[in-house]
TrEMBL record:
The keyword Endoplasmic reticulum belongs to this UniProt entry's keyword annotation: no
Location within or outside the cell: Secreted; Bacterial flagellum
Gene Ontology BP term (one): bacterial-type flagellum-dependent cell motility
Protein name, per record: Flagellar hook-associated protein 2
Length: 533
């Protein structure tokens, strides 16, 4: 490291002099940094374009899905009782639905309050059972003393298949803890304690009657047909939770409510029973909500609005993106407005810096051949006719969509006749689908639908841009501008080392001068002293 003496002998400002001398030497370095900054801006601008192209690519892929063109909608004469959702496979028409019964979930509750009438306070579901019973005094917050043990619950699924779960009970448990064990058991039961009524509620998490009692061989009679089955003689269930299956030993009256299947009649002919209130028939998903006095009507028809909106959004997105990219391609390059160095920014106002950089960033992608070629191909993809298409559905102009005649629009699409587009969609949605999504042979554009062509073109254009600018996750060596930036960084580092050596040399020279002046001053002082003596 060079020892620096800052003008003590000469009286000169050595630091300022060296700084002034280095300014000229740093000019090439500033130019290198400016070129690096411009290249980084260009890389980022390419990536911004690719982000927009990817948005268009996503929409083009969506336009290849049949559901975009054969979307159907439903109406109900009584939405409060039965609603419906159509799918592409739904048959268009009008259907009658009479709802005789809706599906309900089974529910059972404590037959009386859990807290003991002798207790001075109500039970606390978050305290342990042991905390709430005074063995020595013989009193308890609960109607019965809780002992260690367990109880079993049984629920049923499709085909009447039973699922048994065993719930352990300890005196160190809390009531809410036991109920959580039930909820987490996988039995499909939701259990909770209602403090207002001082009762426990157990209900199935799904609707339907799965545990059916049969009188014909083979006779099935599990838990009197209850959806939540248990041994009602179990001490904890009977005496602590106050749960029962029936109100009488014969089991003629269940305490459990609900657990019913939905029942409806389709088109005055087909009687349907379902464990769920959602049922799909003829491609139509019905949602049963209430019993009806008579028939309600469900109508299924083509959703021309949905298809129309999809096409309009696609056209608008295409117009938005080609306008943005064309603007980049046509931007003027202001070569006199190089990126500002840090030293230059120090002497400028923020607004001036903003205006300068607006000029500096102009023309980053001017005349780029990959983007220009991509846009030209996209224009052709849109207006070229589809080979083998139904007459009147072979190209966009048949639907009332044309290319703008204004050359300044550079290929923008114009929907000249919305009513024509709507009528064409209603007339033959399948032909519209084919125009956009026909696969063809995958090679010859004339055999491919518009969206299929665009997917191919946009994917190719994005790939070419990535070869230049890469992605944010890529290393510099994977794309051309990245490799250029690596080279620039090496050149900047090398030149910075040269400047450091040069600055050290200047300081060495000034230090030698300072030492020489210091020696001369010492000699002069010595001579003066000799003569004055």
């Amino acid at each position: 490291m060079v020892t620096r003496i800052s003008g003590l002998a000469s009286g000169m400002d050595i630091d300022q002099m060296v700084s002034d001398m280095m300014k000229a030497q740093k000019i090439p370095l500033d130019k290198m940094k400016q070129q690096k900054q411009w290249t980084e801006w260009q890389r980022d601008s390419y990536r911004d374009v690719n982000t927009k192209l990817n948005e268009l690519l996503t929409m083009a892929k969506d336009m290849n899905y049949q559901k975009t063109y054969v979307s159907k909608k439903t109406t109900s004469s009584n939405e409060g009782a039965v609603s419906a959702t159509a799918s592409p496979s739904s048959s268009m028409g009008t259907y009658s639905i009479k709802v005789n019964q809706i599906a309900t979930a089974a529910i059972n509750t404590s037959q009386k309050a859990l807290s003991s009438p002798d207790s001075t306070k109500k039970i606390d579901p978050n305290k342990t059972f042991a905390e709430q019973q005074d063995v020595s005094g013989g009193t308890s917050s609960f109607n019965a003393v809780v002992k260690d043990g367990s109880f079993k619950l049984t629920t049923y699924g499709e085909g009447g298949v039973a699922k048994d779960v065993t719930i352990p009970v300890l005196t160190t448990d809390t009531l809410n803890g036991i109920l959580k064990k039930i909820n987490d058991s996988g039995a499909g039961i939701r259990a909770f304690y209602d403090s207002a009524s001082d009762k426990v509620v157990m209900e199935r998490t799904e609707t339907g009657n799965f545990n059916k009692v049969t009188t014909e061989p083979p006779v099935v009679d599990n838990f009197f047909g209850a959806e939540i089955g248990f041994d009602q003689s179990n001490d904890f269930l009977k005496n602590v939770l106050q749960m029962k299956l029936t109100t009488d030993p014969a089991g003629t009256t269940l305490t459990e409510k609900g657990g019913t299947n939905a029942e409806f009649i389709y088109n005055n002919a087909l009687k349907v029973e379902s464990t769920s209130n959602q049922y799909t028939i003829n491609g139509i998903q019905l949602n049963l909500k209430n019993v009806t006095a008579g028939n309600e009507t469900i109508s299924v028809q083509t959703d021309t609005d949905a298809t129309f909106d999809s096409i309009v959004k696609f056209v608008n997105k295409y117009n938005e993106i080609i306008e943005s990219v064309n603007k980049k391609l046509d931007e003027k390059r202001y070569r006199d407005y190089a990126p500002l160095s840090d030293d230059q920014k120090k002497d400028m106002k923020d607004k001036d810096i903003e205006l300068w950089e607006e000029k500096s960033k102009s023309g980053l992608l001017r005349g780029d051949s990959s983007l220009s070629s991509g846009l030209n191909t996209m224009r052709t993809d849109f207006y070229a006719p589809l080979a083998g298409a139904l007459q009147g559905f072979a190209q966009l102009s048949d639907l009332g969509i044309t290319t703008s005649s204004n050359y300044l629009d550079k290929g923008k699409l114009i929907i000249n006749d919305e009513s024509k587009l709507r009528s064409k969609i209603a007339e033959n949605p399948d032909a519209i689908y084919k125009l956009f999504a026909e696969n063809g042979d995958g090679k010859t554009k004339s055999t491919m639908g518009i969206a299929d062509r665009l997917v191919q073109t946009i994917t190719s254009t994005i790939g070419k841009v990535e070869e230049k600018a890469g992605k944010t996750s890529w290393t510099n060596q994977k794309f051309s501008l990245g490799r250029t930036l690596d080279t620039m960084n090496k050149q900047i580092d090398s030149f910075q080392d040269r400047l450091t050596q040069m600055e050290n040399r200047y300081y060495s020279q000034f230090t030698a001068m300072e030492k020489a002046i210091q020696r001369a001053n010492q000699q002069s002082a010595y001579i003066t002293q000799q003569f004055s003596g």
